[in-house]
Write a structure and sequence with these properties.
DNA Binding (I), subunit A; elongated
Length: 163
Amino acid sequence: MNNRVLVLNQDDSPLMVCSVQRAFVLVYMNKSELVRPANGYRIHSITQSYPMPSVIRLNRYVNAPYKGVSLTRQNVFKRDNFECQYCGTHKDLTLDHVMPSSRGGAHAWTNLATACKRCNARKGDFTPDEAGMELKRKPYKPSYSLFLRNGNNTLTEWDEYLA
Protein backbone atom coordinates (compact mmCIF):
# COMPACT_ATOMS: atom_id res chain seq x y z
CA MET A 1 0.00 0.00 0.00
CA ASN A 2 1.24 3.47 -0.91
CA ASN A 3 0.66 6.17 1.72
CA ARG A 4 1.04 8.93 -0.84
CA VAL A 5 -1.38 10.26 -3.43
CA LEU A 6 -0.54 11.99 -6.70
CA VAL A 7 -2.43 15.29 -7.08
CA LEU A 8 -3.12 16.44 -10.63
CA ASN A 9 -4.08 19.96 -11.61
CA GLN A 10 -7.32 20.45 -13.51
CA ASP A 11 -5.40 20.12 -16.80
CA ASP A 12 -4.02 16.70 -15.72
CA SER A 13 -0.49 18.00 -15.12
CA PRO A 14 1.18 16.62 -11.97
CA LEU A 15 1.05 19.19 -9.19
CA MET A 16 2.28 17.48 -6.02
CA VAL A 17 2.18 14.42 -3.81
CA CYS A 18 0.14 14.45 -0.60
CA SER A 19 -0.97 12.07 2.13
CA VAL A 20 -3.91 9.71 1.76
CA GLN A 21 -5.73 11.58 4.55
CA ARG A 22 -5.35 14.96 2.82
CA ALA A 23 -6.46 13.51 -0.53
CA PHE A 24 -9.50 11.86 1.01
CA VAL A 25 -10.58 15.15 2.61
CA LEU A 26 -10.19 16.95 -0.75
CA VAL A 27 -12.38 14.34 -2.46
CA TYR A 28 -14.93 14.22 0.37
CA MET A 29 -15.27 18.04 0.39
CA ASN A 30 -15.77 18.03 -3.43
CA LYS A 31 -12.60 20.04 -4.05
CA SER A 32 -11.20 17.23 -6.17
CA GLU A 33 -12.29 14.06 -7.90
CA LEU A 34 -10.97 10.54 -7.57
CA VAL A 35 -9.16 9.58 -10.78
CA ARG A 36 -7.68 6.27 -9.73
CA PRO A 37 -8.29 4.34 -6.50
CA ALA A 38 -5.51 2.38 -4.81
CA ASN A 39 -5.79 -1.26 -5.87
CA GLY A 40 -8.13 -3.01 -3.46
CA TYR A 41 -7.64 -0.67 -0.51
CA ARG A 42 -10.51 1.10 1.20
CA ILE A 43 -11.00 3.70 3.93
CA HIS A 44 -13.64 2.76 6.48
CA SER A 45 -15.82 4.89 8.72
CA ILE A 46 -18.31 3.52 11.21
CA THR A 47 -21.08 3.25 8.61
CA GLN A 48 -19.43 3.53 5.16
CA SER A 49 -16.50 2.38 3.11
CA TYR A 50 -14.70 4.54 0.53
CA PRO A 51 -12.06 3.66 -2.08
CA MET A 52 -8.59 4.80 -1.01
CA PRO A 53 -7.25 7.36 -3.51
CA SER A 54 -4.06 6.85 -5.47
CA VAL A 55 -4.51 9.72 -7.98
CA ILE A 56 -6.86 12.71 -7.63
CA ARG A 57 -7.61 15.72 -9.87
CA LEU A 58 -8.41 19.16 -8.49
CA ASN A 59 -11.72 20.68 -9.60
CA ARG A 60 -10.20 24.15 -9.96
CA TYR A 61 -7.01 25.05 -11.77
CA VAL A 62 -4.18 26.03 -9.42
CA ASN A 63 -1.61 28.39 -10.90
CA ALA A 64 1.80 27.01 -9.98
CA PRO A 65 4.23 29.31 -11.78
CA TYR A 66 7.43 27.54 -10.73
CA LYS A 67 7.46 23.78 -10.75
CA GLY A 68 11.19 23.20 -10.80
CA VAL A 69 13.20 21.03 -8.48
CA SER A 70 15.25 23.08 -6.05
CA LEU A 71 18.95 22.34 -5.95
CA THR A 72 19.64 20.88 -2.52
CA ARG A 73 22.01 18.23 -1.23
CA GLN A 74 19.18 15.75 -0.58
CA ASN A 75 17.66 16.34 -4.03
CA VAL A 76 21.00 15.59 -5.73
CA PHE A 77 21.23 12.39 -3.65
CA LYS A 78 17.67 11.46 -4.72
CA ARG A 79 18.44 12.12 -8.38
CA ASP A 80 21.47 9.82 -8.13
CA ASN A 81 19.55 7.11 -6.20
CA PHE A 82 21.71 7.61 -3.09
CA GLU A 83 24.72 5.94 -4.69
CA CYS A 84 28.24 7.06 -5.51
CA GLN A 85 28.43 7.90 -9.20
CA TYR A 86 31.99 6.56 -9.39
CA CYS A 87 32.01 3.25 -7.46
CA GLY A 88 28.32 2.59 -6.70
CA THR A 89 28.50 2.40 -2.90
CA HIS A 90 25.68 3.74 -0.71
CA LYS A 91 27.87 4.68 2.31
CA ASP A 92 29.49 7.97 3.39
CA LEU A 93 27.97 10.05 0.58
CA THR A 94 29.01 13.61 -0.23
CA LEU A 95 28.56 16.02 -3.12
CA ASP A 96 31.23 16.22 -5.79
CA HIS A 97 31.75 19.08 -8.23
CA VAL A 98 32.53 17.33 -11.53
CA MET A 99 34.45 20.41 -12.66
CA PRO A 100 36.02 21.51 -9.36
CA SER A 101 34.69 24.80 -8.00
CA SER A 102 38.29 25.98 -7.50
CA ARG A 103 38.67 25.78 -11.29
CA GLY A 104 35.45 27.65 -12.09
CA GLY A 105 32.94 24.82 -11.80
CA ALA A 106 29.44 26.03 -11.00
CA HIS A 107 27.23 24.87 -8.15
CA ALA A 108 24.58 23.60 -10.60
CA TRP A 109 22.61 20.43 -11.36
CA THR A 110 24.83 19.64 -14.35
CA ASN A 111 28.05 19.93 -12.32
CA LEU A 112 27.10 18.11 -9.11
CA ALA A 113 27.22 14.37 -8.57
CA THR A 114 26.88 12.10 -5.56
CA ALA A 115 30.22 10.60 -4.50
CA CYS A 116 31.43 8.66 -1.50
CA LYS A 117 34.11 10.29 0.66
CA ARG A 118 36.76 7.89 -0.65
CA CYS A 119 36.09 8.63 -4.34
CA ASN A 120 35.71 12.35 -3.70
CA ALA A 121 39.11 12.46 -1.94
CA ARG A 122 40.68 10.33 -4.69
CA LYS A 123 39.35 12.66 -7.40
CA GLY A 124 40.50 15.71 -5.47
CA ASP A 125 40.91 18.91 -7.48
CA PHE A 126 40.77 17.17 -10.87
CA THR A 127 38.09 16.44 -13.43
CA PRO A 128 37.02 12.78 -13.67
CA ASP A 129 39.07 12.36 -16.88
CA GLU A 130 42.20 13.78 -15.28
CA ALA A 131 41.75 11.55 -12.23
CA GLY A 132 41.14 8.46 -14.39
CA MET A 133 37.63 8.00 -12.99
CA GLU A 134 34.42 7.49 -14.92
CA LEU A 135 30.96 8.76 -13.95
CA LYS A 136 28.19 6.15 -14.11
CA ARG A 137 25.74 8.83 -15.28
CA LYS A 138 26.30 12.33 -16.52
CA PRO A 139 24.70 14.87 -14.10
CA TYR A 140 21.45 16.43 -15.35
CA LYS A 141 18.68 18.67 -14.11
CA PRO A 142 15.63 16.49 -13.36
CA SER A 143 12.19 17.53 -14.54
CA TYR A 144 9.49 18.02 -11.93
CA SER A 145 7.45 14.99 -13.01
CA LEU A 146 10.55 12.79 -13.21
CA PHE A 147 11.50 13.91 -9.73
CA LEU A 148 8.00 13.08 -8.43
CA ARG A 149 8.28 9.64 -10.00
CA ASN A 150 11.76 8.81 -8.70
CA GLY A 151 11.69 10.69 -5.43
CA ASN A 152 8.61 9.11 -3.93
CA ASN A 153 8.95 5.41 -4.79
CA THR A 154 5.86 5.72 -6.93
CA LEU A 155 3.59 2.94 -7.98
CA THR A 156 3.26 1.92 -11.61
CA GLU A 157 -0.31 3.24 -11.53
CA TRP A 158 1.15 6.78 -11.52
CA ASP A 159 3.27 6.24 -14.64
CA GLU A 160 0.68 7.37 -17.20
CA TYR A 161 0.24 10.69 -15.33
CA LEU A 162 3.96 11.36 -14.88
CA ALA A 163 5.03 10.53 -18.43
